[in-house]
Amino acid sequence: MAEISPQIQEKRKEENVAATLEAYGGIEEKPTRSEILVWYLYELCSYFVHTVLIPIVFPLIISQTVPNPPEPGQGWFKSYKGLKCKQSEMQLYEGLVHRAIKLGHTNFSPLQWTSLSWLTGLILSAPILGLVSTLLDHGHHQHLIPASATAIGALFCLPAGFLRKPYIFPPYIAAIVAANTVAAATHARHLGLMIRAFTGPAIPKRRFPNRRSFGSWLSLYSTAAGCLGAAIMASFTDRMYSHSDHFTALWVVSIFSGLIWGFGMIHIFSTNRATFTSIDSGRKSFDVTHVVSIFGYPDALGSLAGVFLSSFMTMCVFGAGLLYAIGYVCVKSENVLFLFLVYFMVPLVFLPAAHPLQQVLRLDAEKMQLFGFMLSTFVSGFGFYYHGSVWHKSYLLLFAAVQGTATGLLHAFGRVLWLDCSPAGKEGVFSVWFSWARALGSCAGFAVATGVPGNVGRAFGVSFCAGIVGMVVLIFGNISSLRGARAAGHVIKSEKASPVHGDDHLSKGSVMSYA
């Protein structure tokens, strides 16, 4: 990473601390147990939008709006590996990968059509996020931003089946992607505010383990709750797809997804952790310097690269592995459900268990994120090396468990590392960058995995390279939670107490008292 002279770094730290103390000199209310629980609730009700609704449900719905695919060369009763297969299973695969949607001189498959719509939503969300970032950090009525985003996204889930035409789906998907990106940014920001309120805006180094423990605990359990919601929605999707009228059944899934997502607004209206301070007066509604302030923090830039690469890799492995299981290994429909359940349910056990392991080994967020990269790189490397072989069902389930755990670790600790690098008063703009980079990485990974579905080795190879690059960035970029927190002004050299929460009363016991 680019180095900044020690004098400039020290001056920036002093400025951050001074601004923090001026803006947040009053006592912030520590998060209550009910606030934490409803924050978990929103993850439960929204995580599946990114992991199930967009990459699974919408491609399936779009595949029902195009003509039936032609019979493949090997016939309907054999997979591309020559294994016996049911006609319905091969029709499912061919319906997803057959390029039946014509746009100009180019034909797109339902999977590629989803990728294009996903990218459109990210482009649409970019200027919105720029405006939102300033309002989140320096505006009034900040809770209206996630409420509006969630309401808009949930509403666009409802009319997905009104017209049985593929061309109507890009606006739907783009609106949902944009809304989910904004809502995810506000959700990550709320985590940063709770961590700051618990530890204080500026703490001595000896108290940094308290911040590390509390932030990791919240993020891990929140991700586990999200995995539970994703498992429920994936199971519901599989159950509804068994109906003869696939289109109507999947439309019901989309409607139900919107209702569940909207139910998550309980969190938004039951808690209001606003951050309007005395320094906000006179602030513009859109401040370019505030939006690009991230580029003054090298550790934050390195962390952002890790967020993009991790989301790219995990979605690429997920998409490529799922297509391989359906079209090549010809996994039975009930076993596809088992794959979903293993992928999303195993993290419910391993993510909470990762917190005490982290505390015993005294590992920072970047080391836990590095562990997630190692797990996912192992899976993608195995998939690349053995892509020409026929995988047994037990291996598929094993790697689904490992990859699901890796995905949860990368998301949970990538978010914590990012917030450690976010200065007080800038949680909004930093969370916006986090959310957009995560969504962009997932979109790119989905596009690579589904662009050429017959070449699964390429997708696994690209994922493997992304994992290696991610580990190189974390290791040789000298990315560190403590270093990032120092640069952001969260950790100070002085052994004096935090001006917000007094002396060293934050202990491991106080963290666990929330459990």
Keywords:
two-stranded parallel ribbon, mainly alpha, Growth Hormone, Chain: A, 515 residues, 4 strands, two-stranded antiparallel sheet
Summed over residues and divided by their number, the pLDDT gives a mean of 86
- Termini separation comes to 38 Å
| Assigned CATH architecture | Up-down Bundle
Order of helices and strands: HHHEEHHHEHHHHHHHHHHHEH
Strand content: under 5%
Q: Main sheet? A: 2 strands, antiparallel
- State the CATH class: Mainly Alpha
Q: Could you give the order of strands across the largest sheet? A: 1-2
What does this structure look like?
The strands form 2 sheets. A two-stranded antiparallel ribbon has the order 1-2. The protein has a two-stranded parallel ribbon with strand order 3-4. It has helices at 6-23, 33-63, 87-97, 110-138, 144-157, 169-199, 208-241, 246-263, 265-270, 288-291, 298-327, 333-361, 365-385, 393-420, 427-451, 456-476, 481-488, 508-512, and strands at 101-103, 106-108, 203-204, 491-492. It has one domain (32-270, 287-492): MFS general substrate transporter like domains (Growth Hormone, Chain: A). The protein is mainly α. α11 (298-327) packs antiparallel against α14. The chain crosses the membrane at residues 40-62, 116-136, 143-162, 168-186, 214-236, 248-269, 304-326, 338-358, 370-388, 394-418, 430-450, 456-476. Keywords: Membrane, Transmembrane, Transmembrane helix.
